[in-house]
């Protein structure tokens, strides 16, 4: 089934593993399992099966968006597949129709410190499908169950589901419960509450932007959700987490692989809830978690989506992953390197701000872990070489290894080389600090990339403990640096749609066209960020705009605002939009049918919205500053 490895490659993998592991060859069973995993359905095949299944049920693929989202100030990174669908879940008409699916690369910066166990990762791919006022619970749950057991061949005896048990005047989700009973019955399983079907309160099985129902404001949409779990029967329940095991137990026996959110209700002014006239389905699942279930392995890093990277780390360190003491560090290195490669490919460079700060932190943390394993600083070239395995793993999907290695490797090597100098200085600095406290520990983490556990270990040998209250206080002060839009692994979230933010969004379209008119046709948008306080627009230009040019840009834009130009959109074929001269964000993929916003006869741009109805609503436009941020790259701040 989907075997991409011949006997020669299997033999080579076996030989390489034996050479790496050396005297630990007695751990043969784990080794054999690792190789067997590579012979099951791989992630290439999974993608194709998912696409084929949902296409056969009338769905259209939505192209993925960049890891750094355009015009979304609520998050540093794309953290879920539904981020690009926000306007359509709020009622806009999607150009591709009412049945959609995609596989979206995501980064969760807040998960970085969680990486090291057997199931957390900072980079992941979210598999999603949506119904925008089309089908609802019956089709969603039946199709999903069919895909799991018939297409990717999961054992239905190992599948468990959850449903909303009802609270705050909201009824139990009996519709989902009855659908699940019927689906399990089709495969000969008599499922009932407490047997393959479990009920939980709103903290587990309810979705809204405000969280649980009683926190929802008037008019807010929300609804129950139903999660799918896979049981690893080889994992014994740990009573530390409770007497009885259940799907939401944290002992590791159960793994959530996906969640179907049913946007079903709207809150009334009297606190009651009414059915929405147009009900949506938002499903999100983890591709990596699907593979864990398919390969029946509770350790994500032993599956085929991570194993090749782990193997390269073993070669560099001459250590074996099967030795438990090496696992946390190797997991961190593999995950962080994968996330770094994807970020660099999407145009992020190491820096001390926003996305660049997260990339720098990832590279520094993996360098520290490699140093711990090696007992010395890693070679920048060695680490960069491991990145080649990431490129190979996703060849043809996201990367062209022969081309992309020329982009990725130098950036990784340069950052690690610079940090290695700082790292050695940091270690020497630690040796000179006689007494540690929480603030110093966080400063070491912030300035030198020292993970807390490294500092703790060093001072433990000195008989000292870190004041964790001080450390957490400092950490919380800097938390905004790794903010994220999402609260749960597969829960959705809606972006800021304030009136002022919408005004600035329309102003960025005008600015894009005015820059084109004033500075020349070589202008290219490189990114934007909009908050309710200001807009930021990044662009490519062969020269830095002069004060005279900036004044002209500001005057032209205000002139267009005063013309009271109408703002309208049309849904047209992509080729037609291109022939019309509509501008687009070059890093973004677009579907065959696109939404184009027209600002009078002046501006035409690919965009999902929302926008003001008339430019007069913007008010006025003032450029606060223009700065250089890179080679021929400039940034305008305006309000």
Automatic annotation (TrEMBL):
<keyword id="KW-0648">Protein biosynthesis</keyword>
<dbReference type="GO" id="GO:0005737">
    <property type="term" value="C:cytoplasm"/>
</dbReference>
<keyword id="KW-0436">Ligase</keyword>
<dbReference type="InterPro" id="IPR018164">
    <property type="entry name" value="Ala-tRNA-synth_IIc_N"/>
</dbReference>
<dbReference type="InterPro" id="IPR018162">
    <property type="entry name" value="Ala-tRNA-ligase_IIc_anticod-bd"/>
</dbReference>
<feature type="domain" description="Alanyl-transfer RNA synthetases family profile">
    <location>
        <begin position="41"/>
        <end position="639"/>
    </location>
</feature>
<dbReference type="InterPro" id="IPR045864">
    <property type="entry name" value="aa-tRNA-synth_II/BPL/LPL"/>
</dbReference>
<comment type="similarity">
    <text>Belongs to the class-II aminoacyl-tRNA synthetase family.</text>
</comment>
<dbReference type="InterPro" id="IPR002318">
    <property type="entry name" value="Ala-tRNA-lgiase_IIc"/>
</dbReference>
<dbReference type="GO" id="GO:0004813">
    <property type="term" value="F:alanine-tRNA ligase activity"/>
</dbReference>
<dbReference type="InterPro" id="IPR012947">
    <property type="entry name" value="tRNA_SAD"/>
</dbReference>
<dbReference type="InterPro" id="IPR018165">
    <property type="entry name" value="Ala-tRNA-synth_IIc_core"/>
</dbReference>
<keyword id="KW-0030">Aminoacyl-tRNA synthetase</keyword>
<feature type="domain" description="Aminoacyl-transfer RNA synthetases class-II family profile">
    <location>
        <begin position="96"/>
        <end position="308"/>
    </location>
</feature>
<dbReference type="GO" id="GO:0002161">
    <property type="term" value="F:aminoacyl-tRNA deacylase activity"/>
</dbReference>
<dbReference type="InterPro" id="IPR050058">
    <property type="entry name" value="Ala-tRNA_ligase"/>
</dbReference>
<dbReference type="InterPro" id="IPR018163">
    <property type="entry name" value="Thr/Ala-tRNA-synth_IIc_edit"/>
</dbReference>
<dbReference type="GO" id="GO:0005524">
    <property type="term" value="F:ATP binding"/>
</dbReference>
<dbReference type="InterPro" id="IPR006195">
    <property type="entry name" value="aa-tRNA-synth_II"/>
</dbReference>
<dbReference type="GO" id="GO:0000049">
    <property type="term" value="F:tRNA binding"/>
</dbReference>
<dbReference type="Pfam" id="PF01411">
    <property type="entry name" value="tRNA-synt_2c"/>
</dbReference>
<dbReference type="GO" id="GO:0006419">
    <property type="term" value="P:alanyl-tRNA aminoacylation"/>
</dbReference>
<keyword id="KW-0694">RNA-binding</keyword>
<dbReference type="Pfam" id="PF07973">
    <property type="entry name" value="tRNA_SAD"/>
</dbReference>
<protein>
    <recommendedName>
        <fullName>alanine--tRNA ligase</fullName>
        <ecNumber>6.1.1.7</ecNumber>
    </recommendedName>
</protein>
<keyword id="KW-0067">ATP-binding</keyword>
<keyword id="KW-0820">tRNA-binding</keyword>
<keyword id="KW-0547">Nucleotide-binding</keyword>
